[in-house]
Specification:
heterodimer, A: alpha+beta, Alpha-Beta Plaits, 2 domains, 5-stranded antiparallel beta sheet, 4-stranded antiparallel beta sheet, 5 helices, elongated, B: alpha/beta, Rossmann fold, 6-stranded parallel beta sheet, 22 helices, 20 strands, 38% helix, acetolactate synthase activity (chain A), Acetolactate synthase small subunit (chain A), branched-chain amino acid biosynthesis (chain A), AHAS_small-like_ACT (chain A), transferase (chain A)
Chain lengths: 188, 589
């Protein structure tokens, strides 16, 4: 019989979090040295310790390209989120770790390229929906469009869902990039 | 010629010398030949040729753990590096400062599946504190200095520097270590926040049933930290328990000492942990062998956790007051603040608490019965302890992993830190003998004993050659019960006594084996031979391997079965056929 999270916690040998604790989605900005292997360290940490990665983006952010910013969206209990931050901070090439979800209001955006193959009415409909979503046409043929859309993850999700209903689709998504609101500049 | 201009290989030797390294444990091979060539030309650094790269890392660990200095390892590419992985993981789990230099195929061949090539930095990334692949000879010296800095500061750990052969041959400028290394991103916090120390003192002074639970972090913080811990405990008269890694951080002879805690800890230590109202955890990490059943772990306590590694805090157990910092600094501040207060700990409550603890102590949970027919393993360790006690602090014990390790932890009393070397986190069988080699090199005149099991010792038996080659008088004290004892014990308790593959079949004759390697071999099979064997072992001015036949059915108690809480310990063997551990516990090892 499968046991659920409410059984006695059998923690004697290995610690399990069998109680169901609320899981939250957090967005991290991790400022790192742009050196070989740094992304592998970050990803290896997540897979090795069993943390989730919902989305990950990485790019250099300084003029001299010595510093990169990794944006990670993850989910976990409060304790796990705290661990993720502490573990990331422990990596030698990591400058600092910002839990944007905890630190206050922030902007989160995603970009997607959505190819939809449709004819006739569906083709015209796709264009109308794209207009509603402020998506731009990035490429077109007589039987397809490539739309460029950006915005919140939810907005991109719902746009893709609608396009799916109109025809065969192919999607390329950037993953979430995020930055804090307000005038303060995060030091690198 | 500019004296700072030299080959990469020469830089390695110069950097090691500048870092104060006097001994390197290693094994040569194609990709490190230039470095070995430089080693040949100098006399400052002593190279110890091990017989397997795993042994090199464990030896370096033993050296580091017993001297407080970083252990240095030099191995070749490919199999040299992969053989070192177990040792590196062991050092990471137990926070031992190691700098491991690995040779690598020339840079232009990296990624080509060249002979003896492996992705060393990729393989060792999760089992090191940090690692480097040096592709530019002009960065080599600085990287080596940084490796020492990272390995030895903050929470110590192993660091790998992978050096391709062309970088070793190449010529560049040597950079001397800068006085005080300051790393741009790696800056561990060593000084604790003063406000938190104040809050901790408030909590400790309000305690009615306090306990100090200290671990390997105190040992890593240096002997002064252990002194401060002793001072703190004497001053407060709080009961103190130590983890496996912490043994020696507080003197075993002190009246406040409750013994080791955890799965095979003492009855009094585990009950006191369970019933305490304020817990001061110093340099320990609430490991699953310590906590037992998590939701029954010290249920009525408020917890203070001092650790230099923020990721150790709130990992397994949520604490009320986290303090990030070096154990030594934190203890110093705690003592200072406590002294300055007018309020003293609640004497009356403390006296009550000690009365309860004394009742638990009265169980004498570590007692065992001896007889004339067969040596009890506990008896062997007790006698070893009693017969070496007059040597004072000059006794160093290493162990392998299993029952003998737990018995050694229970029955051998340590009064000083750095005297006890064991594989705690990773639980590596085969750790003890190479570690003893490393310890003996750090302490040439001390008594170094590897307390071993007959199964564990075979995992790195080849290091006997190393001991013989360098005339290291290590003593290997095998408790031979003809079983992988801990495996057998679990099979007895969990799996209905079906001893699947845990019988040590086709064992060598350890006395003849010792003699074949050039050691003295001794054997005891009856209790009345035990003292004579230990005497002879101690009297021999060279390496000895002792085969002590012990009771094959003895189990290690006390024991907290998996799935159980601290106040649910097993003290005596359970009745035949009865399963002490529930179905849930079975899944948990």
């Amino acid at each position: 019989m499968a046991k659920t999270g409410t059984v006695d916690q059998p923690g004697a040998a290995y610690t399990f979090d069998s109680q169901e604790k609320p899981v939250r989605r957090h967005t991290f900005a991790v400022i790192v040295d742009n050196e070989p292997g740094v992304l592998a360290r970050v990803i290896g940490l997540f897979s090795g310790r069993g943390y989730n990665i919902e989305s990950l983006t990485v790019s250099t952010v300084t003029e001299d390209a010595t510093v990169s910013r990794i944006n990670i969206v993850t989910t976990g209990t409060e304790m796990v989120i705290e661990q993720i931050k502490a573990q990331l901070q422990r990596l030698v090439p990591v400058h600092n770790v910002h839990d944007l979800t905890l630190e206050g209001p922030h902007v989160e955006k995603e970009l997607a390229l959505v190819k939809v193959k449709a004819k006739d009415h569906n083709r015209r409909e796709s264009l109308r929906i794209a207009d509603v979503y402020h998506a731009q046409v990035a490429d077109t043929t007589l039987e397809s469009f490539v739309f460029l859309i950006h915005g919140s993850t939810e907005k991109v999700d719902s746009f893709i869902e609608l396009m799916d209903a109109l025809g065969e689709t192919e999607v390329a998504r950037s993953g979430v990039v995020a930055i804090s609101r307000g005038a303060e500049i995060t030091p690198v | 010629m500019d004296t700072t201009e030299m080959t990469g290989a020469a830089m390695v030797i110069k950097a090691l010398a500048d870092q104060g390294v006097d001994v390197v444990f290693g094994y040569p091979g194609g990709a490190v030949l230039p470095i070995y060539d430089e080693l040949f030309k100098q006399n400052r650094i002593r190279h110890i040729l091990v017989r397997h790269e795993q042994g090199a890392v464990h030896a370096a660990e033993g050296y580091a753990r017993s001297t407080g200095k970083p252990g240095v390892v030099l191995v070749t590419s490919g199999p040299g590096a992969t053989n070192a992985v177990t040792g590196l993981t062991d050092a990471l789990m137990d926070s031992i400062p190691i700098v491991c230099l690995t040779g690598q195929v020339p840079t232009h061949l990296i990624g080509n599946d060249a002979f003896q090539e492996c992705d060393t930095t990729g393989i060792t990334r999760p089992c090191t504190k940090h690692n480097y692949l040096v592709k530019d000879v002009n960065r080599l010296a600085r990287t080596l200095h940084e490796a020492f800095y990272v390995a030895t500061t903050g929470r110590p750990g192993p660091v790998v520097v992978d050096i391709p052969k062309d970088v070793q041959f190449g010529s560049g400028t040597y950079a001397a270590p800068e006085g005080k290394q300051k790393h741009k991103t790696y800056q561990p916090q060593v000084k604790p926040d003063r406000e938190r120390i104040d809050a901790a003192v408030d909590m400790l002074l309000s305690a009615k049933r306090p306990i100090v639970y200290a671990g390997g972090g105190v040992v890593n913080a240096g002997p002064a930290a252990s002194q401060l811990l002793t001072e703190f405990v004497r001053m407060t008269n709080f009961p103190c328990t130590l983890t496996l890694m912490g043994l020696g951080a507080f003197p075993a002879r002190e009246p406040q000492y409750l013994g080791m805690l955890g799965m095979h800890g003492t009855y009094e230590a585990n009950w006191a942990m369970h019933d305490c109202d304020v817990m001061l955890c110093i340099g320990a990490r609430f490991d699953d062998r310590i906590t037992g059943k998590l939701d029954a772990f010290a249920p009525e306590s408020r917890k203070i956790h001092i650790d230099i590694d923020p990721s150790s805090i709130n990992k397994n157990v949520a604490v009320d007051l986290p303090i990030v910092g070096d154990c030594g600094y934190a203890l110093e501040d705690l003592i200072k603040v406590m002294r300055a207060r007018h309020k003293k700990p609640d004497e009356e409550a403390l006296a009550d608490w000690w009365r309860r603890i004394d009742e638990w102590r009265a169980k004498k949970c570590l007692s065992f019965e001896t007889n004339d027919a067969v040596i009890k393993p506990q008896q062997a360790i007790r006698r070893l302890y009693e017969m070496t006690r007059d040597r004072g602090d000059d006794v160093y014990i290493t162990t392998e992993v299993g029952q003998h390790q737990m018995w050694a932890a229970q029955h051998f009393g340590f009064q000083k830190p750095n005297r006890w070397m064991t594989s705690g986190g990773l639980g590596t069988m085969g750790y003890g003998l190479p570690a003893a080699v490393g310890v003996q090199l750090g302490h040439p005149d001390a008594l170094v004993v590897d307390i071993a099991g007959e199964a564990s010792i075979l995992m790195n038996i080849q290091e006997l050659s190393t001991a013989v080659q360098y005339r290291l008088p290590v003593k290997v004290f095998i408790l031979n019960n003809k079983y992988m004892g801990m495996v057998r014990q679990w099979q007895e308790l969990l799996h209905g006594g079906r001893y699947s593959e845990s019988y040590s079949e086709a064992l060598p004759d350890f006395v003849k084996l010792a003699e074949a390697y050039g050691l003295k071999g001794l054997r005891a099979t009856k209790p009345d031979e035990l003292d004579g064997l230990i005497e002879e072992m101690l009297a021999h001015d060279g390496p000895v391997m002792c085969d002590v036949a012990v009771d094959p059915t003895e189990n290690c108690f006390p024991m907290i079965p998996s799935g159980a809480a601290h106040n649910d310990m097993l003290l005596a063997p359970v009745a035949e056929g009865e399963e002490a551990i529930g179905a849930e516990g079975k899944m948990l090892v």
